[in-house]
Every structure is written in structure tokens, then in C-alpha cells.
Specification:
4-stranded mixed β-sheet; 3 helices; 275 residues; alpha+beta; 10 strands; globular; 4-stranded antiparallel β-sheet
């Protein structure tokens, strides 16, 4: 079996902390990182075990924005669920796999947009879901390989179904079979984002389209007329998925009202001024 050696590098990223609701003696923080604008090739160039919906590969220009350093945790979800209702009620403890620092799951697209609306009303900052283009651009962080780690995944860097391997250099391991705390692996990409591959799928703002024909080239969300029954985009793969489903280019979809224990999210907003 190949011997994969993890090479760690130290990078400087710009980060800011949004203090959420204070619970008892603790303030629950929300860490975001600044994502510099730029352009990239979105989609698969023909990677092993890719899908037709990841094509055609196309160039997209993404303006700078801020994105959650980690998926939203159960502690953060509970804090925001206590804020005033905007359009719908929220269950403060929806997750199947319990843990304050585990990603929240079993939340629908409608639930997470309510979360963003409550957070925006509380902070005055326009929180939202990332667009699909923003998500892939942020995940890649300048890389062109199937994963921001490189050509494959290994059990030491991500939570996925590591009982199967990807590519010639893949390493087999024992599947965890549930979510893990965010940043368990203490590894981030060049933009400072963690858990972009595996753990939980992440909701995006976009409606699902079967390929990229006609997709926006400016990083904006690709949405049709408001439809309560629309299907939404998921990115990143999860604890349940084989490694090829966790690639930077891989896409999935779900009904906006679906709630599953392998789907969570992270937030985005306009890039703040950082001194």
C-alpha cells in the first residue's frame, strides 16, 4: 500500500469572529475567513469517477466574500434558534449525531435560510448560503486537483467512507460512520477553511441544474423563479460517502425541505473590512 505523507504548511489568513447569543456564561463564536476574489475553472476536467453534471468545465470570476471557517455547529445552531423568528420556527436540537461541536444536520434548505435570516437580523450583516460557484472556488483555494489536499483523500485528513479508496495513491481505513467535531483534523486549505471534504454535505443557494450549460460566469447563484418544491445544490460529500463523492467538483441535490443526517451547511456574507 502506498505511504502517503501529509505535508503541513503555515499560511496567514484574515479571519473575524461574530459573537452569537450568550448562553449562560459562554458566548458562542462564529469564525469566518476572508476569501479573496479571483477566477477559476469550475467543474471536472475529466477526473476519475466524475459525473456528467460536473461539466462542461467553465471559467468563473468570483468577487471577494467571507465564509464560515467550519460548518455550523450544533451549539451555534441552538444559539441562533433562540433569536426572534423571521418566517418559520426552528427546532433547536434537530441533529441525529449529538455533540455541541459536531456539525448540525437534519436541517432543510428552508431551515438554514431561516437561520441566516435570524443571524442577519441580529448582527446587521447579510448572512446567506454560499453560491455553488463560491463554494467550489473557496474549496479549491487555487488548486486544480480532485481535492484541495491533492490527488486523493486519506483517513488522516477527512471524515468519509475510507473503507474504499480513490486513485492509485488512496489509503484504506475504518469508516467512522457518523459526523465528527468540526476541525477534528486540524487541517485547513490555503484560504483557511476546514471540513470542505466529507463530514456533512453543505447546502448552497443555487437551484439544481443537470449540467453547467448556461451557468452564470460571475459567481452568482443560479436560481429560477421562487418555487417551494425546488431542488437545491449540495457540495462537499459526507461521512457516509465514498471519496469520489467528496471531490471539489462533485455535486449533489436534494429537495429544499429534505432533512438528513449527512447534510449541514456553512454561512457566507459580503467581505467585511478588516484592519
Amino acid at each position: 500500500m502506498p505511504d502517503l505523507k501529509l505535508r503541513r504548511q503555515t499560511k496567514t489568513v484574515q479571519r473575524f469572529i461574530e459573537p452569537l447569543l450568550q448562553l449562560e456564561a459562554d458566548t458562542i463564536p462564529l469564525a469566518l475567513v476572508w476569501i479573496p476574489g479571483g477566477d477559476f475553472l469550475m467543474g471536472s476536467p475529466g477526473e476519475p469517477q466524475d459525473y456528467d453534471d460536473e461539466k462542461p468545465q467553465h471559467r468563473v470570476t468570483v468577487p471577494s466574500f467571507a465564509m464560515g471557517q467550519y460548518p455550523i455547529t450544533q451549539a451555534q445552531w441552538r444559539a441562533v434558534a433562540q433569536l426572534p423568528k423571521q418566517t418559520q420556527e426552528l427546532d433547536g436540537d434537530p441533529s441525529n449525531f449529538k455533540g455541541a461541536n459536531h456539525p448540525v444536520e437534519q436541517v432543510s434548505w428552508d431551515d438554514v435560510t431561516e437561520f441566516c435570516a435570524r443571524l442577519a437580523a441580529q448582527t446587521g450583516r447579510a448572512y446567506r448560503l454560499p453560491t455553488e460557484a463560491e463554494w467550489e472556488y473557496a474549496c479549491r483555494a487555487g488548486t486544480t486537483t480532485p481535492f484541495h489536499f491533492g490527488e486523493t483523500l486519506s483517513p488522516e485528513v477527512a471524515n468519509y467512507n475510507c473503507s474504499v479508496t480513490y486513485g492509485d495513491r488512496g489509503v484504506e481505513g475504518s469508516q467512522i460512520g457518523q459526523t465528527t467535531p468540526v476541525d477534528k483534523y486540524a487541517i485547513a486549505n490555503r484560504f483557511g477553511l476546514s471540513d470542505m471534504h466529507g463530514n456533512v454535505w453543505e447546502w448552497c443557494e443555487d437551484d439544481w441544474h443537470g449540467n453547467y450549460e448556461g451557468a452564470p460566469a460571475d459567481g452568482s447563484a443560479w436560481v429560477e423563479e421562487e418555487n417551494e418544491n425546488s431542488t437545491k445544490v449540495l457540495r462537499g460529500g459526507s461521512w457516509y460517502n465514498d471519496p469520489w463523492r467528496c471531490r471539489s467538483a462533485c455535486r449533489a441535490d436534494s429537495s429544499r425541505v429534505g432533512r438528513y443526517d449527512d447534510i449541514g451547511f456553512r454561512v457566507a456574507c459580503a467581505a467585511p473590512r478588516l484592519s
